[in-house]
Amino acid sequence: MMANFKQYNGFKQYDRAFVDTLISPRAGEQKLGEKIQVVDNLDDMATNTARFVLLGIPEDIGVRANHGIGGTQTTWLPALRALLNMQSNAFLQGDEILLLGAFELEESEGSEIDRLRQQVAALDQLVYPLIERIVAAGKIPVVVGGGHNNAYGLIRGAATALELPINVVNIDAHTDLRPAEGRHSGNGFRYAINEAYLKQYRIFGLAENYVHAPLLHEINAGGHIRAFYFRDLLKSNQTIRENWEAFIDDLPEPCGLELDLDSLSGVLASAASPSGFALNDIRRLLLSEKKKFRYLHLCEGAVELSDGRQDPLTAKTIAFLISDFIAGQQNNRAAT
User: Could you say which of 50, 88, 162, 236 is the most buried, measured as most Cβ atoms within 10 Å of its Cβ?
Assistant: First the structure.
């Protein structure tokens, strides 16, 4: 059976035939991909039983528009394949997830910064209406990027659906609060704040080495932006989980969760670093999280960067994080 993709405003909707091409079946086993749900029409989301809606934004225009190293568009399909081939079992069945599809972007040639930033702004106009539609249907978007520029579309879409600004916690080595100088991966949160879609913004694990002086003054002013520095985590006598819980405990709902893969030590990303969180540290946070998040955004990771560096394990890293987030939120729901 041939895959029959449906297009929606730059978005390619996946069907069962395409999903099946990504699964490696094995006798006596059932994979997540064999249980994961799809819909024939986006209007069917509201009545679908799945709580989580998975989609991809495979692009690197936002990263390159921020003078970064391209390659974040290589992550989505390998990560999806890794997730679909995990086992369906009592820990995660698979039918909790509705796999929607991914954006397909036709990029014009060249690398001129103004052109790239115009393309990022155009992508914003595609992303936020779909996120709005998902949240309005009562679902939780799980989005794999792509650059961190897409945080703006997720925040705007969720806030528009809920008809109020949302709060966001970002696990990241960087603030992504550069000036509103044209859209790119380094200023999605700035635009969301300026346009009143984002109310409180918190950064967990911020690398003090990459905070310029005016931004440090803005954070220290004690307004709607707060940060927990990675240096302070290293000095703390408390566990990362204890610090995390104290940092976000008073953050009002509705909340979104952002996770930049460059905050993890040794994970391939445009701004990869030897210093950062261990993968298992973040897995513990996701699995034990008590707060209900309206979306999860995993971004900036790469399987192959434009400078030639490669790491296929990035795909499995993302698959673990997706499964942990869903399991943690499901446990959270059951506990209440």
Answer: 50
Concatenated DSSP letters of 224-280? SEEEEEHHHHHH-SS-HHHHHHHHHTT-PSSEEEEEEGGGBTT--BTT--SSSB-HH
Q: Residue 143: name the closest of 5, 259, 288 by CA.
A: 259
CATH superfamily of the domain spanning 6-335: Ureohydrolase domain (3.40.800.10)
In this structure, the dihedral spanned by the alpha carbons of residues 101, 102, 103 and 109, taken in order and rounded to 10 degrees, is -140
pLDDT at residue 332, rounded to an integer: 74
For 175-208, the DSSP string reads: -----SSS--TT-HHHHHHHTTSEEEEEEEEE-G
DSSP string, 282-293: HHHHHHH--SPE
Domain ranges of the chain: 6-335
Q: Does the bond joining 68 to the residue before it have cis omega, within 30 degrees of 0?
A: no
Residue bearing tokens 């100088």 = 181
Structure tokens at 143: 């989005």
Query: What percentage of the chain reaches a pLDDT higher than 70?
Result: 95
Q: What pLDDT, on a 0 to 100 scale, did the predictor assign at position 7?
A: 67
- Can you read off the two tokens belonging to residue 34? 């064999």
